[in-house]
Amino acid sequence: MRRTALLASAVLLAGLLPWATARAADDPPTVPVDRFEGEVPFASQPAEGIFTWGGDADDPPALSLAARPDAPEGAKVLAGSYDISGYGGFTHDFAADQPAHDWSAHQGIRFWWDGRNNGRKVAFEIKDGGANGEASELWTTSFTDDFTGWKRIEIPFTDFVYRTDYQPVGGIDHVLGLTGMWGYAVTLPAGAKGDFAMDDVELYGRADQSLRATVSTDAAVHPVTEGGTASLKVTLATTGSAPVGEPVTVHYETGGGTADPGTDYTPVSGTLTFPAGTASGTTRTIEVATRKDRTAEAAETIPVKLTVTGAKAPAETPQVVIDAHGLPYLDTRLPIKKRVADLLGRMSLAEKTGQMTQAERGAVGTGGDIATYALGSLLSGGGSTPTPNTPEAWAEMIDGFQLRAQATRFQIPLIYGVDAVHGHNNLAGATVMPHNIGIGATRDPALAERTGAVTAAEVRATGIPWDFAPCVCVTRDERWGRSYESYGEDPALVDSMETVIQGLQGRANGKDLADDDKVLATAKHFLGDGGTAYGSSTTGTYTIDQGVTTLTREELERTHLEPYRTAVERGVGTVMPSYSSLDITGDGKGAVKMHARGDMINGVLKDDLGFDGFVISDWNAIDQLPGDYATQVRTSVDAGVDMMMVPYTYKEFSGTLADEVKSGRVTGKRIDDAVSRILTKKFELGLFEHPYADTSGASSIGSAAHRAVARQAAAESQVLLKNSGGVLPLNKTQKVYVAGSNADDLGNQTGGWTLTWQGSSGPGPQGTTILQGMREAGGDVTYSKDASAPTTGYDVGVVVVGETPYAEGVGDVGNGHSLSLSATDKATVDKVCAAMKCAVLIVSGRPQLIADQLSGIDALVASWLPGTEGEGVADVLYGKRPFTGQLPVTWPRSESQLPINVGDASYDPQYPYGWGLTTLTRPLPGGTTTLHALTLAAQAAEHTGADRTGRALVTKARLLVQQKIGDHITAAVSKPFADADHLLLTGRYGKAVEKLAEAYRAA
How far, CA to CA in Å, does 737 sit from each of 728, 776, 829? Predict the structure, then answer.
């Protein structure tokens, strides 16, 4: 049956329904969109169909066309059940090989919903313009399920707003045209199990001018210095920019705010008229004059009420705000401690709990709730970006949010946070660094600091003062989906890379935080997240992430706590607890979620280590704690969490926390401590004086200078594991056959946390692939991704294989991932390496099991996730830079060995921790005699504190030992070799050379 025939018959049926609403005589007939009788299949684009989606494997709802005797229309309804932890819902897309639908004749869209009276919001969006349903603009609204049984939900098109948290194509024209519609989608509530039923989606009513004409103001908030005059611009706009056909009037009147008319300002009222024929974009101005006195005051508001006839009115009443003035906390001459104490003493409980609340940018829409709930912070989750995703749009968005905070009594600025974990990775065009695992492979603390400085400069230039980085976890099991977020398996290595904190923040005393190229850093995830046991996770389908770390207190302090001690000494501004649980042997507590471990957060972090910044929770982490919501809030706050990341439940959190304080279950002292810590960092960042984006550094985003740092980091991160016959470096005169899934895939090369949370294969960010880098290096290169092109006539092959992107527990081994190369990758390696001498590059976030193919591979390189600068990889392949990287983690022979780490009693890996061949220089001649001399020299360097000399001596010994070992890596060799690198990182240079000499004798 053709769609047009179906719609026509459905329209006739609609008139016979007992629930049909009478329509005005001049209204067009209703037009069914979905009857759920089976006329629309469960299918995806390009076919017409209904399909589900979600943030994780278990988030999509289960749908069915269920027969219901009480169906409002027909015999069946769309029914479903859901249990969503992140996000999930369903979509009806119209067929992409048919013309888009024209809804412009109608007032709105309506449907029947079977209410559960749970008080939860259900998001409903429509798809406007673009090529098809998955490449259209999304316009959204919501309704509240606060009823029981069937209810018809009617939504005028004027209620839809442009979706700001996600747009599949980055926006088209930001105008709801309604002439090219591609369907609708429903986002179901997250966080609790539920079920629903829906029926009879249809278009209703007649469109009027208010659908085509809109009155808006230039801003919702207009701050003005006391005694100044605020100018509000009122603009008339129409769809398609056509002149209005009917007059539009706007009556305005001041009054109703906290400012006193006649005392604080001169009241105004009047009417603005836009006659028929007025051009779209025409602007009128309303001026509000304020009055000056000698009294120090908090900010005061003057609402300007607008009554619009003939067009859609602004979504909210604009306000003039007389700035706070004369109060001690605003005095920059006072010490920050005194400013904090003064401000804290003036704040209400609601204002304090608001400061402890962080919401997601997409949840607050245009930002009205920022002032309503006195929110202290916003964040962008992975992939939550403005449209378009440009530096200018980021700065404009954040300035808009900061403007909202100016409507609060004390105009406390927001602190905006983002996960810039390897560069400003949410921003298109930013410089994307290697992931931390690759930075750990560089063994270059100065370079780590430079990568942090580049990241900070690019982040701050978009108006963001806070970075949820670095991750100072110690990864102990490569099956963990967050392995690449760690600098390595040795706490001494992680310690050495924490120079990145100075790159991000500047000096440890916080004096540089207000600079336009520095951001507040976050040490995460406290404590023991890298030590979770495989199979211990209870989060969805995760196998290890967010699981349980079980160990003795001494093991905890030696392995996982040490990097936090270093971070605190380096002045890190914030710390984020882990989702995982900690089970300390013998303490009698059992496995307790870290967000509930007051003994660790209050006791160890704040009291023992002396951390004076603030603790920010992870995303919705308190929802994983036992008990009802009030118990979860109380437990986490009492444990020492100062600010709660509650992306979509910020209202519930701040209100619940206030109730807990009023009841006496949470003390006012605890609240004041948390808010003082938060305010201190806001003052140190200079946000009270400069809340808006300083974009003077925006021209450096993605600049040649910044990319040069990333290129160097990519080069230094490459670890040469094997190099039989000196295959590497390549010569530009050689004919090189390049193949493999990751040779020319920037998305795979950059990994997770790149533009989106999980990252994605394909073009991805702006940058250079490894293949492009090789071509730009001047190599004679032929490329065949799957090695299907003839392989004869080449001097050498380069096969680039490895993983596809993932993040967090989604990447856990056993959750759809493994440590083995794909069958396609293996076949490509086998084909190329059988035909010619070959070098295999493994682009991955963790070691891949390669033992069964290793004998056929001449050269093997651990490339990790090198970021956007593929030229850096080419630099070492062609010898422009030497290979100098070392393994930051142990490379296992088999998965059965896991977990395997430096220091283990039983240690027989494929390649030991610290292994890394070089093309820099020839090893020193001699054997045990040379090593003995190096030992004596290293002991002397250690004794005199000559660290640079000591490190150089150990490196010389390591290269000598590696030359003798060659491909004959045994347990007897591996253990002392790996131990030597740990000793080097802890400054015991003499002992390190002694261990290397032991490995030499065992080889």
Answer: 14, 15, 12
